[in-house]
Amino acid sequence: MNAALAEAPTPNFVLANYRRALAALRVVERTPRAATTDPASPYFGLAEHELVKDLRATREELDQQVVMMLVASAEAALMRDYHRRLARREKTGVRLAMKDLPVDTRDGVKLGPLLRIWYEQTGNTKELTRMRLLVSHRHWLAHGRRWADKSGIRPDPAEAAGIIREFFLRLPDFPAVELPGS
């Protein structure tokens, strides 16, 4: 397992930083004069209606970046579990199926086949389907939004955290993971 995977931020770390950024945006929103008259401010010289429009756009972009990071942190947890299971050499159905996956990336395997194993082991549940859509949405976000988002979802951070939480709770014999919002 590579070192970066071991140090990936947890969902709660991502959410804590999100709450701090929202607090900072609210401060700017409540003190528009200070924000628009400070030459060091990115909002310097904006009219109040321009500031409001900019803050709204900033919030929308922040939400999308947080969703992307939440899903990336969940993906890292899945990859850590994959490496843990292979190292333990247990004779479980999940581990045996994981052992047969082709190694394609420096982290071990691609996420799609790994998710397929969980589908096979737990059944095609609502939680797994929603997680798969969320991963598709994250892929679209992470690669520059260059194509149409085929996931059909546009979750805010709270919804994404809920999907991730329900997904991990559904996986049997999954190690304790810091669930979003816990």
Characteristic terms for this protein:
182 residues; mainly alpha; elongated
Gist of the model:
Helices cover 66% and strands 0% of the residues.
Question: Would you kindly provide a written description of the structure presented here, covering whatever features stand out?
Answer:
By secondary structure, the chain is mostly helical. The protein has one domain (9-170). Helices cover 66% and strands 0% of the residues. The protein contains 8 helices and no strands. It has helices spanning 3-6, 11-30, 32-37, 48-88, 93-99, 111-122, 126-142, 157-170. Helix 4 crosses helix 7. The protein is elongated, with a radius of gyration of 20 Å. The two termini are 26 Å apart. The mean pLDDT is 87.
Global Rg: 20 Å
Compressed to H and E, one letter per element, the order equals: HHHHHHHH
Number of helices: 8
* Beta-strand content bin: under 5%
Main sheet record: none
Shape: elongated
**Percent of residues in helices:** 55-70%
The total strand number stands at: 0
Q: Alpha-carbon distance between the termini? A: 26 Å
Helical/strand content category: mainly alpha
Which spans of ≥5 residues are poorly predicted at pLDDT below 50? none
* Oligomeric organization of the protein chains: single chain
Q: Into how many domains do the coordinates divide? A: 1
The average pLDDT is 87
Topology:
Blueprint: H1 3-6, H2 11-30, H3 32-37, H4 48-88, H5 93-99, H6 111-122, H7 126-142, H8 157-170
Helix pairs in contact: 2-4, 4-7, 4-8, 5-6, 7-8
